[in-house]
Amino acid sequence: MTISDQDILFLGDCIRQAAQAEIMPRFRNLGSGDISEKASAIDLVTQADLLTEARITAALRERFPAALIVGEEAYDADKSVVPALADAELGFVIDPVDGTFNFAAGLPVFGTILAVTVRGETVAGIIHDPVLGDTVNAIKGAGAFLTRPDGQSTKLKVAEPTALNQMVGGMSWGHMDEPDRSRVCANLAKIRMTFTPNCSAYEYWMVASGKLHFIGHSKLMPWDHLAGVLVHQEAGGHTAKFDGTPYRPGEITGGIISAPDKESWQLIRREIVGI
Amino acid sequence: MTTTIDVTVLADLLRRAAKAEILPRFRRLGQDEVRAKSEATDLVTEADEQAERMIKAEAATLWPEALFLGEESVAADPALLDKLEHADLAIVVDPVDGTFNFASGIPAFGVMASVISGGQTVAGIIYDPMGDDWVMAEKGGGAWLRRPDGGAERLSVAAPVGLEHMVGMASTGYLPKEKRAEVLGNLAKVRFLINYRCAAHEYRTFAGGHVHYLMYNKLMPWDHLAGTLISQEAGGYAAHFDGSPYLPHHFDGGLLIAPDKASWDVLRREVFTV
């Protein structure tokens, strides 16, 4: 199974159209009643999630009828779809609205993510920003690119390595348990500035374009990370699980760090993760 | 004091300045990485300076008695800050809050203004250029989300929850070095920490009831006066670390904001042990 350039164009159009049709009309479009506002925000998030995933899934099914299609909804219905990514001949992993907290809060920092896997390897990743209209694309072996709505395309490159106290980054510890949790939190005092937008789509775009030096996560749901990790690697970065092994489709534990190079990666594991 | 300021006029001025001077410079970076970096800095500076210049000029015409304080004006004349405490009427402006995001092409930045009268914040406005709406408050009148089409919704802070369920924002970068690691370590007690690097959006998120705490240690008035009033008017509790009220001429002493006094006390005791 290979993915052609035409397939990639199709996939990019597919998520852009779904985001335009199902996400944008619900962003900040809350009811005018005082009392109903919070409930309706949550409803709108849920609807945007469900309908975008359904729309993308339907389009993928038509073009790739044999593919394994994984999204949060599909996973809720059948947990075995995630481990099945390890062996699937062709898999698609969808995060319809990544950064739902921001979406609900009205902050335009969220994205739609799609990863393509072939026999347990991520071969393509697409991260789309529905508000600004940008799309980040990576195809394995061919680099990572940011394409603006006007068609202008830029090759992405990770930041130059720097000293720990000069780094800007984030390590999400929200899903860690003690004693790791307190240790990692306190260790973040060693860097220059933290940035935690609570949105994988933005974090991977930023770390792949040198706007952040590193990011790290303990919980590895595939829709949050597969596409972004490929984008980061294709932008020249080094990503691996906390134990140093590669992160692969189907895995959900072990924690990962994305850093400009292997040496920085080791520094962050030692000084921030503290193992 | 004879003059009052119509906050809807001031709010509209912030919006016009954003449309004229800020948005046209957002993401106007070249492809070349090196060029982009210096260009980004220049564009931020230009957006800041031009927006403040426009707001200041119009404010001087509309409200000639008011003292005008902006980040750029104070950079040029630091003595302006000392006048805030005793000014009958003052307008404090942050033309581009979240400049690091603005320079990086991240759509989390804002334009803020507050009105000070007799040493108290009497109005606060946060405009979001990307979303084209305001969160704003006048003292005693509640906090409101307002849209250019005239739509308005009253804002209220989140319902109080236990410490382990709290989500919020804390700007730990300006804490004393020896306290920074301690406070960060304590933060493991809450559910998680978000950091937008933009006070405008952090206050907006708090006043909308999406998070449970905000903490700042560097208190420049253009960063915090508007947001603190809006948070209070949305029902939140705000105070310095020592429990005293935060006033426009206070530049240090820390600021902790929570949905209520009980949450504030827990956060102060368990997390912000400054």
Can you tell me about this structure?
The complex is a heterodimer of chains A (275) and B (274). With 275 residues, chain A is an alpha+beta fold. Chain A folds into 2 domains: 5-155, Fructose-1,6-Bisphosphatase, Chain A, domain 1 (2-Layer Sandwich), CATH 3.30.540; 164-273, D-Maltodextrin-Binding Protein, domain 2 (3-Layer(aba) Sandwich), CATH 3.40.190. Helices cover 36% and strands 21% of the residues of chain A. Chain A has helices at 5-23, 37-63, 72-77, 100-105, 180-187, 200-208, 222-234, 262-273; strands at residues 68-71, 91-98, 111-118, 121-128, 135-139, 144-147, 153-155, 168-172, 193-194, 214-217, 238-241, 256-259. Chain A has a 7-stranded mixed sheet, sandwiched between helices. Chain A is globular, with a radius of gyration of 18 Å. In chain A, 51% of the residues are buried. The model of chain A is unreliable at 31-39 (pLDDT under 50). By secondary structure, chain B is α+β, with helices and mostly antiparallel strands. Chain B folds into 2 domains: 7-155, Fructose-1,6-Bisphosphatase, subunit A, domain 1 (Fructose-1,6-Bisphosphatase, Chain A, domain 1, 2-Layer Sandwich); 163-270, D-Maltodextrin-Binding Protein, domain 2, CATH 3.40.190. In chain B, 36% of the residues lie in helices and 23% in strands. Chain B has helices at residues 7-22, 33-62, 71-76, 99-104, 177-186, 199-207, 221-233, 261-270, and strands spanning 67-70, 89-97, 110-117, 120-128, 133-138, 143-146, 152-155, 167-170, 192-194, 213-216, 237-239, 255-258. In chain B, the strands form 2 sheets. Chain B has a 7-stranded mixed sheet, with helices on both faces. In chain B, helix 6 (199-207) packs parallel to helix 7. Chain B is globular. Chain B starts with 6 loop residues before the first helix and ends with a helix. The A-B interface holds A 28, 30, 32, 34, 37-38, 101, 104-109, 131-132, 152, 154, 157, 170, 172-174, 178, 181-189, 193-198, 202, 206, 210-211 and B 27, 31, 33, 100, 104-108, 128, 130-131, 133, 151, 153-154, 167, 172-173, 177, 180-182, 184-188, 191-197, 201, 204-205, 208-211.
